[in-house]
Amino acid sequence: MTNKSSYIIVGMSGGVDSSVAAYLLKEAGHHVEGVFMKNWEGDDTDTYCAAASDIADAQAVCDLLGINLHTVNFADQYWERVFTHFLETYRNGYTPNPDILCNKEIKFRAFLDYAKNRGADFIATGHYARTQRQNDNIHLLKSIDQQKDQSYFLSALTQAQLEHSLFPVGELSKQTVRATAKKIGLKNHAKKDSTGICFIGERKFKIFLNDYLPAKSGDIETVDGEKIGRHDGVMFYTIGQRQGLSLGGQKGKAEAPWYVVKKEMARNVLVVAQGNDHPALYTHHLIVKSIHWIHQTPCFPLHTKAKTRYRQPDQACEISLRTDGLYEVVFTEAQRAITPGQSIVFYEGDICLGGGVIIN
Fold this sequence. Notes:
Low-confidence stretches: none
Largest sheet: 6 strands, antiparallel, barrel
Order of helices and strands: EHEHEHHEEEHEHHEEEEEEEEEE
CATH topology of the largest domain: Rossmann fold
CATH class of the largest domain: Alpha Beta
Number of helices: 7
């Protein structure tokens, strides 16, 4: 964190992490204010988003800490910069990760612009990550608590965004954060971590997505081309998915579970294979587009490590730049259920190098 006294606005979600972040900054002698971001309209009810409950929790924290809380609405920016992309990705048969784009476009763009306009020196959030300045550049690092590290979701941030961003809880374990919250009397010290789509919350996903992208049912086929069932809409499924296929008790077939291994959008067919370790679920390589490098573009081929999903252990790989501008990533060990539309994020030790979107 910054050493001199600064004006810092903290993104307050009502959760324990952002609450402790605000507390730590105030204790360090900074002028701290909070902002609650409301970024979803329409069917925003207590059943799904619980915005009213969250803002009440955020206000209670700010009252206890003696800091002001502002409420801002970025719903238009969220719809234009994040949600339309989210829908288009599903429409094309991919499975997106909206949290990475949400961080880039809302939490560290719209929010940062708002804070700068108020004269703030920095914004801060409750993300579990760290930054480290090296000469004129800033590195994004994994958090001290490797089980809670969220650098994966911050991999699209730029130098300019990191320059004005602080992650106070990145130096702490989750256990310490909760203990600190309890010690200072925060009522949300045991509050459950939020899940679900960024800013939209937890909901029955098929029903929600079908409101925006009407589904078209089709055939489920085996890798050998045999039709064995029907799907509700290819977009509802993801590579490696086991639940919700309704393929139990296939006549003349073993009882091993079925898994999605491919989505053929042109034919509207879901391809499945039987068994958790079926070869069709594994591959050594993938293709990535538009890799964002946080620090600087490296020389290729690059030998490093990567994650193809959050909380996956780092996997050794080689990155090559193709003549068409895409990147090919080859892993030392075969990877299971690589999912087009998801993000791959690269690491060198604790340093997050950046990431891109898997297309194949």
